[in-house]
Structure formats: C-alpha cells, structure tokens
Design a protein that fits this description.
The chain has 249 residues and is mainly alpha-helical. It contains 6 helices and no strands.
Length: 249
C-alpha cells in the first residue's frame, strides 16, 4: 500500500507540474500576444500622427504659398493702379496744355496728346484684364486659405483665423469693385479723348482747338470719377499689403 500511495503522489506531482507549466506557458503566451498587439497599435498610432503632422505641414505650406502669391498679386495690382493714376494725370496735362497754348505751332502739343491717349487706352485695357482676373483666378487663393482654416481643431484659434481672412477678403472685394467702377468710368473718358483726337486730326489749328474746348471740359469732368475709383482701390490695397506682410510690426 505505501508503494501504491507513493506512486499516486508522484503522478499527482507530475500532473501538477505539467498543469503549472502549461498555465505558465499560457500566461507567457498571452503576455507576448498583448505585447505584440500593443506594439502594433503603437506603430499604427505613430504612423497616424506622422501622417497628420505631414498633412498639416502640407496645408500650412500650401496656404503660406497662396498668401505670398496673393500678397504679390496685390502689390503688382497696386503698382499698376498707381501708374494708371499717373497716366490719367499726364493725359489731362497734355490736352489742357494744348488748349491753353496761345501762340506757336500747335502740332507738337497735339502729337504729345495723341501719345498720351494711346498710353491711357493701354491703362484702361489693363484695368479690365485685372478685374477679370480678380473675379476668377484671384479668388482661388482664398479657397486654399479657407481649407487650412477648416483644418484647425482649436475653436478659438479657428475663429480668429477666420476673422482675419474675412477682413482681407472684404478688402479684396472692395478693390475688385473699385477697379470695376474705374473700368466703367474709363468709357466716357476715353470716348472724349478719342473725339478730341479725331476732331483735331485734320484741323490742328487755333480754330480747331477752340472747337474742342467743351469736350476737353467733359474729359476733365469724367476723369475725376475714374481717378476716384482708382484711389479707392489703392486705399484698400494698402490695407491688404499690411495685413499680408511677413514683416513684424
């Protein structure tokens, strides 16, 4: 009997040992699986974070480029508008000088006026082209800017960014409207200049100059509306240049 008992005890110990080893192996297996799962999740999370950072960086980069392009476009438009304003002044000076001349050959003054008319027509054509650009391609800059703002998670910061863009866009809208108005006001002004040029083409005489004086007064009258619209556009462009400038103030 003792021998049988000892044998049973030995079998029980072996069974316990085997079960214990199995449980230990199971625990180790579960632990290893958990570690692997955690590692995989960590790698996935890292990839998502890197992707998000990359996407944000790309959006910021694209917006920065768009704002720089918008700033340059406004700077170019402002420079052209200033040249247009100067051209209007030069044209009026030329026609007023012609009508004010009391003696001497009128032909040089007439030729100087004709040269200014050609330049003014080119300035008017530029104004129309710029208006068309602002109404179409120019607005794409704001679409890129808006996309970036929509990607800002912080609500407070997003609202501030939205307000800044809205203010710049309002100025942009005013510039566009002012240049469109200038383009419209150019029509009667250019019509006066064309009529004066045609009337004097075959009659550059004191009598011919006297005959155009009422049309010259009309040209001076119409010029003020063109110039007023251009000055309004310049005022808004000054605001935009400051708002889009990368220089610290």
């Amino acid at each position: 009997m003792p021998s049988e008992t000892t044998s049973q005890f030995s079998v029980s110990r072996t069974a316990l040992s085997t079960n214990g080893s199995a449980k230990a192996n199971f625990v180790l297996s579960v632990t290893d699986n958990n570690k692997q799962q955690f590692t995989n999740q960590a790698k996935l999370m890292k990839k998502k974070i890197l992707f998000t950072i990359g996407l944000v960086a790309l959006l910021v980069s694209a917006t920065d480029a768009s704002q720089q392009q918008l700033a340059k476009s406004i700077s170019d438009t402002r420079a052209e508008s200033m040249r247009t304003a100067d051209q209007l002044s030069a044209t009026l000076q030329a026609i007023n000088a012609l009508t004010a001349q009391k003696e001497g050959d009128l032909r040089p003054a007439y030729n100087a006026f004709c040269a200014q008319v050609a330049k003014t027509e080119a300035a008017a054509a530029w104004t129309r082209t710029r208006c068309q650009w602002m109404a179409s391609d120019g607005r794409k800059y704001f679409a890129d800017w808006q996309d970036t703002i929509n990607g800002i998670s912080n609500e407070s910061l997003r609202k501030k960014a939205q307000k800044r863009m809205d203010n710049v866009r309002k100025s942009y809208d005013r510039v566009e409207a002012s240049l469109q108005l200038a383009g419209e006001k150019f029509k009667p002004f250019l019509s006066d200049l064309s009529d004066i040029q045609k009337a004097l083409a075959a009659d550059v005489t004191a009598g011919g100059v006297k005959a155009i004086k009422s049309t010259v007064r009309s040209a001076n009258w119409n010029d003020q509306f063109v110039n007023k619209a251009i000055q309004a556009a310049l005022k808004e462009m000054n605001k935009m240049e400051k708002a889009l400038s990368t220089e610290a103030k």
